[in-house]
Target: VanZ family protein
Amino acid sequence: MNTTLKYYGSAILWALFILIICAVPLHDADKSGMFFPGFDKLVHCGLFFVLSVLYCVGSIRKWNTHNIRIEIAMKNTVVLISYGALIEVLQMRVFTWRSGDWNDLLADTIGACMGIFAVLLTSNAIHHEKS
Model:
């Protein structure tokens, strides 16, 4: 457990933050003039982008590599999409004041894939620059 927290502590904290944000009742916040149509999807995408970057950095540190291997990236993608699906199911079944939306899961998936791609691109660029 200590090694998991050592490498993935920030990702776990961010995942808990996402869970709390997705469990909070919004009432009519989405109908106020502060938000535009699709703002919710943008937030989901951004939250999962950050989560995937933190999770990938934890994986890089855990496996002591300079960049993320493709099999680790694929595993991380499955884990992140599963977490997004879990949140949507919880919103449908447990947090009944929220509505589970499969378009939110799509936004989560896009954000996770964007974050993993960003880590792949950045770590390869840094590794290439050093060599």
Summary: The mean pLDDT is 90. Residues 2-28+37-130 form one domain.
